[in-house]
Give the backbone structure.
Amino acid sequence: MTAKLKVTVWNEFRHEQHNEKVRSVYPGGIHAAIGEGLAGTADVAYATLDQDEEHGLSESRLAETDVLIWWGHMAHGDVKDEIVERVKRRVLQGMGLIVLHSGHFSKIFKTLMGTSCDLKWREADEKERLWVVSPGHPIAEGIGEYIELPQEEMYGEHFDIPQPDELVFVSWFEGGEVFRSGCTFHRGQGKIFYFRPGHETYPTYYNEQVRTVIRNAVKWAAPTRRDYPTYGNHKPLEAIGNKA
Amino acid sequence: MTAKLKVTVWNEFRHEQHNEKVRSVYPGGIHAAIGEGLAGTADVAYATLDQDEEHGLSESRLAETDVLIWWGHMAHGDVKDEIVERVKRRVLQGMGLIVLHSGHFSKIFKTLMGTSCDLKWREADEKERLWVVSPGHPIAEGIGEYIELPQEEMYGEHFDIPQPDELVFVSWFEGGEVFRSGCTFHRGQGKIFYFRPGHETYPTYYNEQVRTVIRNAVKWAAPTRRDYPTYGNHKPLEAIGNKA
Amino acid sequence: MTAKLKVTVWNEFRHEQHNEKVRSVYPGGIHAAIGEGLAGTADVAYATLDQDEEHGLSESRLAETDVLIWWGHMAHGDVKDEIVERVKRRVLQGMGLIVLHSGHFSKIFKTLMGTSCDLKWREADEKERLWVVSPGHPIAEGIGEYIELPQEEMYGEHFDIPQPDELVFVSWFEGGEVFRSGCTFHRGQGKIFYFRPGHETYPTYYNEQVRTVIRNAVKWAAPTRRDYPTYGNHKPLEAIGNKA
Amino acid sequence: MTAKLKVTVWNEFRHEQHNEKVRSVYPGGIHAAIGEGLAGTADVAYATLDQDEEHGLSESRLAETDVLIWWGHMAHGDVKDEIVERVKRRVLQGMGLIVLHSGHFSKIFKTLMGTSCDLKWREADEKERLWVVSPGHPIAEGIGEYIELPQEEMYGEHFDIPQPDELVFVSWFEGGEVFRSGCTFHRGQGKIFYFRPGHETYPTYYNEQVRTVIRNAVKWAAPTRRDYPTYGNHKPLEAIGNKA
């Protein structure tokens, strides 16, 4: 626990280059704002879709990553299947994964969930209030009864995910919808947290409470140190055929 | 499955006698409105707090009950502990239990949950919208994407219950809160469904969708027919001490 | 509930043709033995891997299927990806799916789980005892405290699946292992039950208790009748921008 | 995270005084052996049933306790109800609770679970093997695929508890039974871990792997630092009655 966690923040990083409004909110890219919130908690590295042929997610980079944070939106289809498989393998082996906002439709999240991950959405500058429904969960540490975001994109139920292992936040939206906005899942030896807020045109990742949640989630998703299970043919541990 | 389910609707039945407004909404008592919604689905019996020394919940009545529905509010403290223990025993043995609205604070619900079952509340004639978050759950059969109630009491998170085994509905309230309003739990061999709506001054139990949910819940909570497990000292099924 | 459920039993049907021992146990194929156990409960159809170019799983066949039962083992790789996608789509839309034994490694189960679905295994003619751990679950109806199978293949933990929504059976094996052998999952609007026993060289699917479990599972997995949720852009249900 | 966790180990401490065999295994009491295993991880205090009128669990002692460990067996009935209520209140407020072995029948565990907590048992010096079924859970950190205890009391299913939030260990017993032997639960703001092994006549609490599990569980159950939720009447956060 003494060594700092190694976090890689992955960002598609396309909106920021093509859209003036997004660039004005996140001049260094969404990843930089997310990483800034982790200063002091983790050793942060960055990777982006167009960085190299592997989207910055080489085997060695992933091998050195305790927790991977994923933000993507308009270019999910450009992420190579082999890289998705590589990330999935690492999650099953124990790497933590935090999927943010529109990452709900990323290949990596959909393949780990096994469902469509579809939802309702609307861009209407409306208020979101994320209520804590699991007050003892470590991801809610330091958070009040709710987080209020003055303007966000709406995501509404039904959210087509498996039943979360733990439901930490439920969102209220001004326009009349609700959403399971903080959800944990376990896949293999890895831990996954989906956290809803963070549309590219709002300064959500500068919000101190949102940053606290992501910091908490990084700690929660840290790998459990133990050998990976053995699978396949297994010799008996007890004699077979001894009868009472 | 051919024999009709036997349902007992238990109602505190105090508000209706002391409050003109409540009586005008539920002239026959809340229990009558609930039971009316089950016509054709179940053989319905009624029991009320002041009915006799056992609140209408004799051993024989409970023995003949497949599913018990519970509505109480102002007189939770008047329910005798021995009757609560009796109901609990029957639930653990397999009787279904549907707890409605202010029944969240009943002795029977609190003892089965192990928590305070506390929540936020407000009476402000506000709109509630119950969203289906488990679309494949049998309790949601025949229900659209949400149920809208024009006026209800607000219940807000945090709702101090154990994590539900399945979360079927989440409520949106006009005043800014959310609530886990349809929750399943298993205790012993019995199934429990908590369903939020039903403040005594609103005609909620005449609403067709609310009635459909309660009908579905009765079917879902029906006892599983099998022998009660055996507990206590148990002889080995295999020889002990044979070594490989 | 009055109309019989429509069940399609899908079997790889290769072992029975290439292996004398398997054929002697299941002369009509494993699917016939499974279907026989459903007589009176469901309208049963059959489909097999080599039946036609679609493995007997045409769009129309699936559209007429309430619950699909899946047995496969040596030829998982021969199941076409497009057929797997088709089955998955139907599950998300509400078709029940019961995956048996070696089906744990089928493409359809792995894609719905999002994990490797790997496990330990051994063929040693050893005893299995499946203990009921959810005594109120409808899949355990009519089952005693455990099902004992005198000879079965061993499957041992760790079983690399997501945490089941409900754990119904846990197996004890003579050689020293345990296994979560009856597990439910929800994906989209569909219900999934994984049930462990059924190695091709043992007469497991003639066992009356095993047949009872599969019958119960068919009823449990029956589709919930309701419209499929709508997804995508959604107009507000409430005015946005009204302030208190 | 820098300050050491404050752990109170509560032990009934009766067997050790009345039974020579138990005393020979645990000359300082079971609590001392448990506390020894936490050296370096936590600041450990002890409390026992006959210590004073409050069983060593005064308000101030509990207020200073982050995680309470509970071992009891023959004298569950001697624990005063008011002390049980006090401990429960502290758990709901966030104190962690680790219930060991025969503590399954303690008043505090039963009231937090809401079920009978009954099980099958047998004292036959038999082998227990606890398999890890949640390989990514922090309570399994540093643990191999299973923990083998050469001699233990048997506990068998059905174990009458609510479905655990997470199932970490499942036990295999030589005599033919299985048991959910490592289970997590959340109640209010508190976290609870039930861990099966530890009959008073075996040196289980000197076992290094058992000690690792308890150390991990202490860290996992540590209180989440945040304000306790507010309950009761709640003013609206949004205007009510504004219509679209």
